[in-house]
Design goal:
mainly alpha, Alpha-Beta Plaits, 3 strands, elongated
């Protein structure tokens, strides 16, 4: 479990676009069958229904702490993380707060990062 938590899953899978191996030709049924057989569609479904992105409270607070209006240097990283989430109005159903990490639904950190780059 420690090894799984320390990694970010990435999948590389070669999909054969057609049986004659001709460039520019795409057989939709063949590709769909391959995606089903290797479980890619199921992994995507599970990933989208859960909270695949995670970040420690320390990292999140360090990266986005400047977004808070109050001085939060003396507060613990968990409190800072929760305050940041409220400040940027991320909906509660889009994240979960754990003891040591924040868990986000797909795309939520990217939205937060766009705030980061806009400032």
């Amino acid at each position: 479990m420690q090894r799984l938590q320390s990694t970010t899953p990435h999948f590389i899978r070669c999909i054969k676009p057609n049986n004659v191996q001709s460039p520019g030709m795409y057989e939709q049924e063949l590709v769909l069958q391959q995606l089903r057989c290797c479980g890619v569609l199921e992994v995507v479904r599970i990933s989208r229904s859960g909270f695949p992105t995670r970040m420690t409270h320390q990292k999140f607070a360090r990266r986005y702490g400047f977004l808070l209006l109050d001085n939060v240097a003396s507060q613990d990283p968990l409190s800072v993380s929760v305050a940041i989430l409220h400040q940027v109005n991320i909906l509660p159903e889009m994240y979960q707060v754990g003891y040591t990490q924040l868990f986000f639904r797909t795309g939520q950190v990217r939205c937060t990062l766009s705030i980061d780059s806009a400032i």
